[in-house]
Write a structure and sequence with these properties.
The chain is an alpha/beta fold and about 425 residues long. The strands form 3 sheets. An 8-stranded parallel sheet has the order 7-6-5-4-3-2-1-8. Strands 9-10-11-16-13-14 form a 6-stranded antiparallel sheet. The chain has helices spanning about 1-25, 75, 85-95, 135-145, 170-180, 195-200, 200-210, 245-260, 285-295, 310-320, 320-325, 375-380; strands at about 70, 105, 145-155, 185, 215-220, 235-240, 270, 300-305, 335-340, 345-355, 360-365, 370-375, 385-390, 395-405, 405-410, 415-425. Helix content is about 25%, strand content about 20%. The radius of gyration is 23 Å and the shape is globular. Helix 4 links the parallel strand 2 and strand 3. The two termini are about 35 Å apart. Keywords: Disulfide bond, Glycosidase, Hydrolase, Membrane, Signal, Transmembrane, Transmembrane helix. This is Alpha-galactosidase. InterPro entries: Aldolase_TIM (IPR013785), GH (IPR017853), Glyco_hydro_27 (IPR002241), Glyco_hydro_27/36_CS (IPR000111), Glyco_hydro_b (IPR013780), Melibiase_C (IPR041233).
């Protein structure tokens, strides 16, 4: 009994010492919970980026420790797909070097199958557009060191009226696995008004039952707030309606996705939909903003343009290694909006903690005129006396080697400047 008491006393002392230390460097008493995958190895620099709603996943497939990266056919091609497009896209990911940057999923969206199941109730690829079959296509993609994704629906039909998987989950999952599929995007059309919490788990179980590791991307459109329940089911979950290739769409979607920031983490991510960069509906600055904010939000980075025919500007944007590194940072905490001011709050500061006690900070100008945007340290959870170096992720250079209290930058209309702040000193609070 004495030994137990001694151990308890020692533990209490250790806890007290740890508490004093944390209080000496943190600006608030609340410490950010560390994601379970990090095993307590590192704590973020600030406590304002709450992740208390993040939960251990039940999917248990070991995927998505960082947000998925790759390409999806829908935003550019819609139903105009075929096996040559998919093969050429895989080739382009390799030849451009995008695959080496992490873009490793080649995902086929809707319209790949025949309009009816076969006599045995199985899904059948449309042999007019996939004459070699999906097993041969998967083999080709795998030979490039990439992974192949496919699409189905948690309803009786897909959104383009092809057979859905509702009631066929185990047959379809086994079919996908037999072809060598690595990723499933699972949509929400023609769902018979059955609650999504009931429709999406059966496919999780069916995928796990195949014995093949398959990424499970839930596309529920945010209708029933999937962040509240999908972390127990999938590797990512759509929080919004479909993205459109315009400024209003990306700003609206970013705000909706931001509401669920504290539910995301390694193994399961909020998904504000695929990238529109390069599809022609926005300006260079707007696309740069789109890519920056998606990276900061730890959104999946799924290219949605024709990578076989990219412009130099498009390639520059989606190949920015420093911005990608923010998205793929092992700490896995979703960045979020921390401050807004000006007309309708159009001058905004978005930020998030990174590994190595760093922060990523985006100054986002949603107004129609260029402006100077300022971030004060209080908005970032830093003490005003903390000195930080500031690296511009688009200029690829340090713009300050010792800022304190605040930082300002000129930001063009509909533009975003993105940085990494690295503290040089942390001033202890006086006790």
């Amino acid at each position: 009994m004495a030994k137990i008491t001694d151990n308890f006393a020692t533990a209490c002392i250790h806890i007290a010492i740890l508490y004093v230390y944390v209080m000496s460097v943190a600006v608030t008493a609340r410490v950010l919970p560390v994601h379970p995958y990090l095993s307590g190895k590192e704590k973020p620099i600030t406590s304002i980026f709450d992740t208390s709603n993040y939960g251990i996943l039940q999917l248990g497939n070991g995927l998505a420790n960082t947000p998925q990266m790759g390409w999806n056919s829908w935003n550019y091609f819609a139903c105009d797909i075929n096996e040559e497009v998919i093969k050429e896209t895989a080739d382009a990911l390799i030849s451009t070097g995008l695959a080496k940057l992490g873009y490793n999923y080649v995902n086929i969206d809707d319209c790949w199958s025949e309009l009816v199941r076969d006599s045995e109730g199985q899904l059948v690829p449309d042999d007019r557009i996939f004459p070699s079959g999906l097993k041969a296509l998967a083999d080709y993609v795998h030979s490039k060191g990439l992974k192949l994704g496919i699409y189905s629906d948690a309803g009786t039909l897909t959104c383009q009226y092809h057979p859905g998987s509702l009631g066929h989950e185990y047959d379809d999952a086994a079919r996908f696995a037999s072809w060598g599929i690595d990723y499933l995007k699972y949509d929400n059309c023609f769902n018979l008004s059955i609650k999504p919490e009931e429709r999406f788990p059966p496919m999780r179980d069916a995928l796990n039952a195949t014995g093949r590791t398959i990424f499970y991307s839930i596309c529920e459109w945010g209708v029933n707030d999937p962040a509240l329940w999908a972390g127990k089911i999938g590797n990512s979950w759509r929080t919004t309606n479909d993205i459109r290739d315009n400024w209003e769409s990306i700003t609206t979607i970013a705000d909706i996705n931001d509401k669920w920031a504290d539910y995301a983490g390694p193994g399961g991510w909020n998904d504000p939909d695929m990238l529109e960069v390069g599809n022609g509906g926005m300006t260079y600055q707007e696309y740069r903003t789109h890519f920056s904010i998606w990276a900061l939000m730890k959104a999946p980075l799924l290219i949605g343009c024709d990578v076989r025919n990219m412009t130099a500007e498009t390639f520059e944007l989606i190949s920015n290694e420093e911005v990608i590194a923010v998205n793929q940072d092992q700490l896995g905490v979703q960045g979020r909006k921390v401050y807004a001011y000006g007309t309708d709050g159009c001058y905004q500061v978005w930020a998030g903690p990174l590994s190595g006690s760093r922060l990523t900070v985006a100054l986002w100008n949603r107004c129609s005129k260029s402006a100077t945007i300022t971030v004060k340290w209080a908005a970032l959870g830093l003490e005003s006396s903390t000195n930080v170096s500031v690296r511009d992720l688009w200029k690829h250079e340090f713009v300050s080697l010792g800022s304190a209290s605040s930082f300002s930058a000129q930001v063009d209309a509909h533009a975003c400047e993105m940085y990494v702040f690295t503290p040089l000193t942390v001033t202890s609070s006086s006790s």
